[in-house]
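RECORD TYPE: inverse folding
INPUT: C-alpha cells
STRUCTURE:
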C-alpha cells in the first residue's frame, strides 16, 4: 500500500510531545487511515446482485464487446459508504467552521436554498421536456435574470455559463463578436492588471487575444496613467476585477471605462467579488460592458466540491445583441419565452430592433437550474435591504480581521484606509527561514483551513483572508486568536511550526510536483512486483 500505516512520520521527533507514539493500526483517535479504493476493492465484489445474463444468439456488440476485465474496484455497499465517509472526514467544510479562503467567498449555504432547489418541479426537470411543461422553471431563470440586471444596472444577461471562468469566456467572445461586426477584428490585445485572478489572462489567451499587463500603483490599484498610455487601435478590451484581488475598490473604474471606450475598446469586469458591493454599487454605472457574477460566491450556492458553479454574464446595451443563445426572456405579451435559434429572429425584432447577432452557444441547455433556484431564493429571502447588508457586513468582518492582526502580520495596504471584503497580509517580518506556507500549515493544527496563500502575486508571500458576512464576531475572534498565535510562533522562529501540521492525516505534500506531474491514473503495482521477482 502506498500509505504509511504506522501514522508515524519522519518529521516527528521522539521528543515531540505532539507526535503520537506509533500505534498498531495507524489510525488516530476516531480517524481511520483510508487506502485508495483500488487498494481495498477487487474485481469480483459488487454492491448489487444481478442474475447472470442468459446468452441467446450472437452478441450484438460485435467488435465492441469488452474482452478484458473492466478494471474498476468493486466494493460492497457498506464498504463503499464507509470509504467515502472516511475520506469526507479528512476534509474541511463550511459546515465545520470558518473557511478563510480569500477570493473564493466560502459563505454559509442557507438550508432554505437547498429546500427550494430540491422541489421536484425544479430538481427533476429535464432539459428536453416540452417548453409548456417547464414554464415555472423558466420563470425562475427569468426572475433571477431580472434581479441580476437590476442589481448590476446592466442591459441584458446570458444565464448559461457554468462557472466564473466560463462566464469570462462568454463575455470576451461577445466582445470579439462586437469587434468583428464593427470590422475591427484586428484589435488583438487585452490589458489585464498584475493583480488579476489567473483565469483572466487565461480566458483572453484562450479566446485568441494577446495579454499585456497593466502595472499596479504602490497602493495596490490599477495605474490609470500607465493604462491610458497603452490605449490605442490594437486594444480590444481591459479586464478589471472590482473590488480587486488585493481587497481594494478600484476607485478609478469610471475614468478607466471612459478612457477605454474613447479608445474604441470594451471593459470587462471580473465580478467574482460582487458580494462586497452588491446593493451599493451598480457596475453598469461605472461603464462596464460585460461582467460575470459567480452565483456560487455572491449568492451562496455551494461550491468547491460541494456543488457546481454558475457564472451568468451581465452585458451592456452595446454587447447584449451578441449574447449566446438560448435566451430566456419575458416578452411584451407578458409570457416567459424560451428563445432558441429558430425563434431568434422573432426575438430580435421584439427586443433588439433586429440587431440580435448571437455569437453562438455556450452550453447545450440553459445552465445550472439548481444553482439558479438557490441564488433566487437567497436574493428573495434577503430583499434589497438585506443584500445591501450582506455587502456591508462582509466588508465590516474583513476590516475587523485586518485591524485585529495588523500588529502581528504585515498588512501592505492597511495604511491607505479600510479594505473591502478581504484582508491582505504579507510574509514580511517573519523569523529568518519562516514563510507563508508555515503559517498556513500551522493553522491546520489549530483547526482551520488555511487562507488563500501566494495570491495575489503583487504582494510577496501573500495571505488573503475573506471571512464573509456569515461569520459571527465570536467565530471571527476564534479564528483571529488562532492566526495570531501561529503568526507569533512564525515570528519567534518556533521550529515545530516548520513541520506542521502534526495532527492532520497528511503533513507536507510536494504540491509543485503534484501540480506539474499529476498522477491521475492508478496503476496496479502487482504486475510490476511480479516482473521484478
Ligand atoms: C473565483 C474567481 C474566478 C473564477 O471563478 P470560477 O467559478 O472558479 O471559474 C475569477 N476571478 C476571481 C477574482 C475569482 O475570485
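DESIGNED SEQUENCE:
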Amino acid at each position: 500500500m502506498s500509505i504509511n500505516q504506522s501514522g508515524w512520520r519522519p518529521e516527528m521527533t521522539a521528543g515531540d510531545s505532539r507526535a503520537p507514539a506509533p500505534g498498531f493500526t495507524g489510525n488516530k483517535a476516531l480517524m481511520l487511515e483510508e487506502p485508495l479504493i483500488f487498494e481495498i476493492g477487487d474485481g469480483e465484489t459488487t454492491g448489487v446482485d444481478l442474475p447472470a445474463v442468459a446468452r441467446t444468439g450472437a452478441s450484438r456488440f460485435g467488435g465492441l464487446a469488452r474482452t478484458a476485465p473492466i478494471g474498476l474496484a468493486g466494493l460492497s455497499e457498506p464498504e463503499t459508504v464507509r470509504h467515502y465517509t472516511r475520506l469526507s472526514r479528512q476534509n474541511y467544510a463550511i459546515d465545520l467552521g470558518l473557511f478563510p479562503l480569500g477570493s473564493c467567498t466560502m459563505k454559509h449555504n442557507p438550508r432554505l436554498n437547498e429546500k427550494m432547489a430540491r422541489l421536484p418541479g425544479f430538481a427533476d426537470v429535464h432539459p428536453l421536456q416540452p417548453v409548456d411543461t417547464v414554464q415555472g422553471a423558466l420563470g425562475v431563470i427569468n426572475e433571477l435574470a431580472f434581479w441580476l440586471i437590476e442589481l448590476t444596472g446592466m442591459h441584458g444577461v446570458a444565464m448559461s455559463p457554468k462557472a466564473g471562468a466560463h462566464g469570462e469566456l462568454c463575455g470576451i467572445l461577445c466582445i470579439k463578436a462586437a469587434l468583428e461586426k464593427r470590422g475591427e477584428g484586428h484589435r488583438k490585445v487585452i490589458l489585464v492588471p498584475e493583480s488579476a485572478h489567473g483565469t483572466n489572462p487565461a480566458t483572453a489567451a484562450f479566446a485568441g487575444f494577446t495579454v499585456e499587463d497593466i502595472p499596479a500603483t504602490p497602493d495596490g490599484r490599477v495605474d490609470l496613467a500607465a493604462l491610458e498610455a497603452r490605449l490605442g487601435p490594437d486594444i480590444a478590451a481591459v479586464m478589471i476585477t472590482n473590488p480587486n484581488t488585493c481587497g481594494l475598490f478600484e476607485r478609478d473604474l469610471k475614468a478607466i471605462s471612459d478612457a477605454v471606450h474613447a479608445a474604441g475598446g470594451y471593459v470587462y469586469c471580473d465580478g467574482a467579488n460582487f458580494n462586497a458591493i452588491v446593493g451599493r454599487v451598480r457596475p453598469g454605472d461605472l461603464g462596464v460592458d460585460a461582467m460575470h457574477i459567480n452565483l456560487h460566491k455572491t449568492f451562496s450556492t455551494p461550491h468547491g466540491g460541494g456543488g457546481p458553479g454558475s457564472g451568468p454574464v451581465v452585458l451592456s446595451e452595446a454587447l447584449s445583441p451578441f449574447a449566446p443563445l438560448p435566451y430566456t426572456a419575458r416578452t411584451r405579451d407578458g409570457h416567459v419565452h424560451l428563445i432558441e435559434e429558430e425563434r431568434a429572429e422573432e426575438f430580435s425584432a421584439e427586443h433588439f430592433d433586429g440587431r440580435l447577432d448571437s455569437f453562438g452557444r455556450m452550453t447545450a441547455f440553459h445552465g445550472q437550474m439548481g444553482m439558479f433556484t438557490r441564488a433566487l431564493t437567497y436574493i428573495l429571502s434577503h430583499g434589497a435591504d438585506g443584500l445591501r447588508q450582506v455587502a456591508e457586513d462582509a466588508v465590516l468582518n474583513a476590516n475587523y480581521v485586518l485591524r485585529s492582526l495588523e500588529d502581528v502580520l504585515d498588512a501592505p495596504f492597511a495604511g491607505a484606509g479600510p479594505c473591502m471584503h478581504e484582508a491582505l497580509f504579507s510574509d514580511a517580518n517573519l523569523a529568518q527561514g519562516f514563510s507563508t506556507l508555515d503559517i498556513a500549515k500551522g493553522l491546520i493544527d489549530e483547526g482551520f483551513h488555511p487562507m488563500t496563500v501566494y495570491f495575489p502575486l503583487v504582494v510577496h508571500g501573500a495571505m488573503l483572508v475573506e471571512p464573509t458576512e456569515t461569520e459571527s464576531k465570536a467565530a471571527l475572534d476564534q479564528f483571529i486568536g488562532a492566526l495570531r498565535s501561529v503568526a507569533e510562533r512564525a515570528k519567534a522562529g518556533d521550529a515545530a511550526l516548520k513541520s506542521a501540521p502534526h495532527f492532520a492525516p497528511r503533513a507536507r505534500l510536494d504540491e509543485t510536483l503534484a501540480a506539474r506531474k499529476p498522477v491521475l491514473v492508478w496503476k496496479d503495482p502487482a504486475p510490476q512486483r511480479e516482473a521484478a521477482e
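NOTES: Residues 1-15 have pLDDT under 50 and may be disordered.
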